[in-house]
Fold these 2 entries.
Entry 1:
Amino acid sequence: MLKQASGSKRARTRAALIEAATAVIGEKGYDRASLEDIAARAGMTRGAVYGNFKNKEELFLALIATRWQPIIPSFIHGAPLRTQMRILGETVAREARIRQAYAAAATAFQLHALRNGKLRAELSAQNSAIYQRMAAGLLQFVPAEALPMPAEVFVRVLDALITGLLFTYFQTPDLISDDVFVAAFVALAPH
């Protein structure tokens, strides 16, 4: 029982640090955000940070892992690709509104990744595995012959479109309506 409570406390501490990191990195960017700033925002000491994360990059990766999960639509088995793409567009539009609160931290992450070759290599390996799972998942709902290109390529196109739409929405939310999200994905479905 005591061990379980300790695990809960650790989880709460990690969650508070991630929340604080989201705010500080969103305000200052990755490079200017210090562990002291993050700890202070969480009402903790720098030791609490190091007790839970090896360094700032590990904390940052935990932030991204918890705040920036893949978008998973509720596809319908057997529905045409056009319907599936409409569902995806609607899901991405909903997620854009939710993720707006993390937009600055997500942008800071992109900038940090652009400057860090080792991190880019790790992300590439992770994304490769994610794309394989996404392609397999998509093929459970849509037959390969209904796709405009091989599933492995199509999911990469979808991911690039999602990322582009999200960040354009974050910058100009008044220009990217739900209809625009849906239209972008439906356009990928042949008639």
Note: Confidence is low (pLDDT under 50) at residues 1-5.
Entry 2:
Amino acid sequence: MHKLSISDLHILLVEPSDTQSKIIKALLLAEDVQTVDVVQNVAQAKASIKAHGADMVVSTMYLSDGSGLDILKYIKDDEANASMPFMLVSSENSITKLDQFKQAGVAAILPKPFEPIHLSRGLNASLQLINTEEIDLNYFDVYDVRVLLVDDSRLARNHIRRVLEGMGLTKLMEAENGAHALTLLKDNEFDLVVTDYNMPEMDGRELSEFIRFNPSTTHIPIIMVTSESLTSPKMANIQQTGVNALCDKPFESDEVKALLVRLLDSGV
């Protein structure tokens, strides 16, 4: 399968300001992106995706007829476009508002204004999602790895599942919170647990503690994927609960791939 490069990308830019759209388009062209279509609102973005498609969407948060989140959810709820990366460019610093994008499967969040290095990293993270590649394991057949995916956000589960499936992990079961995960752990065997932190009924910390201190599950590696800052007080001692690795939302798939190889091939 041919892998896309940055110069191959067809990007849909959603930006209501003519000045801002010219600035962002110029920066994209400077990164060697060859094709950039520009629209100004949610309706135009949906129509463009439906009519012409795109390899990825770059959008601001606030639009005249909605927000970038409406576009992101439109993409993720459409099976034909669900794997299309979405990059948010915004000056918004509200943790709650940004978390909605993280939960919905945003590929990258760039500040406004952003530096070329931010854009380069966002484009590379998006390419990693597009150019999926199976991982090569020494001690497992990747197709046999049994994964329990735990997240209360359906969109987040869908996004993480697509990333894992692109790496060859197809034996996945899903749980919407820690309590649901416990019922699946009692009746099934797993080689890996990928869990969110913030969940109702039982959060990721409580689930990790149960897994690590239960004799029948103590061996299972745990990756925690969270929109919490990894330097926040909440996360400071999370690895004491037995979590093997922490990963940001949004995450870079190459980072997840490296974690999977380390955990599944070494049991560390």
Note: The mean pLDDT is 91.
